[in-house]
Amino acid sequence: MPTHNPTASPSLRERRRAAAAREILDAAEVHLAEHGPHALSLRAVARSLGMTVQALYHYFPNRDALVTALITKAYDDLADAVQTAVDTGATEPDGTPLPGTVVAAEGYRRWALDNPERFQLLYGTPLRYYEAPQDGPTTQAVRRMAATFQRELFGGFTTEQLAAADVPPLSPALRAHLEQMPPDSPETAVPPPATALFLSAWGHLHGLVILQVFGHTDFLGDHEAEIFRMAMRNMLQETHARIPR
Q1: Under 8 Å CB-to-CB from 170, ≥6 apart: which residues?
Q2: For residue 156, which of 235, 84, 236, 231 has the smallest C-alpha distance?
Q3: One domain, residues 57 and 86
Q4: What pLDDT digit, counting tens, does each position of 161-220 carry?
Q5: Neighbours of 87 (CB within 10 A)
Q6: What is the pLDDT of residues 213-244, one digit of tens each?
Q7: Which one, out of 38, 154, 211, 237, has a CA that is 20 to 30 A from the CA of 105?
Q8: Which CATH number goes with the domain that contains 237?
Q9: Cβ contacts of 212 within 8 Å, gap of 6 or more
Q10: How far apart are CA 65 and CA 215, in angstroms?
Q11: How far apart are the first and last CA of the chain?
């Protein structure tokens, strides 16, 4: 009796199904870029591919399944952009290497500006009636990106140093909540004070990117990138100043 081989290559049928799902996802991304997240329509996506909605349902059983796939792919692409930026590195005009945290932040900003509709899908007004699967693929994709930022922000510090970070006293309830939060990855597990610092830094970074993506800093003209880099340098310096050497 033949046994199942878990490492066997996908069958022809599985490969065709995966290819069709990718094609639908690509068409949905095009529709998203042209009309925005809130105009996402399975009927329009199916029409653009010359198929019926009923046929599309064989690959994505409902709108939420397609939205989950779109969000997961967007987070993965954003995480790839951030990691590629870190791996490539960057320098100041005088040749001084930029800190990894600043490089990661600029990679995040570039992807957001290059993909405003997909960024809006991730961080804009939530889609009505959509709820991401609890601890599903979208959550895993977010954790992957956060782990990169956390490694860059806290790399070189010990757990003892991070636990002694200078932050306002955390309430017992908040400390307990932060201690129960799963780490973004095993190697980026940090104590509650460092988690609080990370969330503060993340809010600073993300807030500036949001302002730029939605055009609220257009008055800066060509100087937006310079202001962003300066802000990220200051944020990094202030964060590290709170961690004992």
Answers
A1: 178, 192, 193, 196
A2: 236
A3: no
A4: 999 999 999 999 999 999 888 877 776 789 999 999 999 999 999 999 999 999 999 999
A5: 10
A6: 999 999 999 999 999 999 999 999 999 999 99
A7: 38
A8: 1.10.357.10
A9: 109, 112, 113, 224, 228
A10: 31
A11: 64
DSSP string, 178-242: HHHSPPSSGGG---HHHHHHHHHHHHHHHHHHHHHHTTTTGGGGGGHHHHHHHHHHHHHHHHHHT
CA geometry: angle at 133 spanning 129 and 135, to 5°?
145
Of 61, 89, 104, the residue at which a domain comes to its end is 61
Q: What is the DSSP string of 16-74?
A: HHHHHHHHHHHHHHHHHHHH-GGG--HHHHHHHTT--HHHHTTT-SSHHHHHHHHHHHH
Secondary structure of residue 97 in the 3-state scheme: strand
75: its two tokens: 């987070």
User: How many domains is the chain partitioned into structurally?
Assistant: 2
Integer-rounded Cα Rg, in Å, for the chain is: 21
DSSP annotation of 95 reads S
CB-based burial, 213-228: b 16+ in 10 Å, e otherwise: beeebeeeeeebeeeb
Any residues with CB less than 8 A from the CB of 3 and at least 6 apart, and which?
A: none
139/102: higher pLDDT = 102
Block residue for tokens 């597990």: 189
Domain that holds residue 116: 72-241
